[in-house]
Amino acid sequence: MKKVNLEVCVCTECVMMGAMEIIDAIEGLKSLETDMTDMYKELDIEVKTASSVCAPKKLHASPVVKINGERFEKANSAMIMGKISELAYK
After folding, report:
1. How far is the C-alpha of 6 from the C-alpha of 19, rounded, in Å?
2. Cα 59 from Cα 1, distance rounded (Å)
3. What is the pTM of this model?
4. pLDDT digit string, tens, across residues 61-82
């Protein structure tokens, strides 16, 4: 089973720019139980939240998400779900 560590910044700025929508999308993926998501069953997705994920702060970088240590700025649900899909196929 592949381990996927996601860290989503929940500082005020990141939340206002869409961090909660990203968390909702990830949690929705984890709860799906359809044949279409068989590839995701091989992933152990762990989501952590912290207001320090986006440190050092950069102007106009929110929301910030880290996947297995790789930093994604101006993240959105589609971007993060795409990266998780890439990891599922590796």
Report:
1. 12
2. 37
3. 0.84
4. 999 999 999 999 999 999 999 9
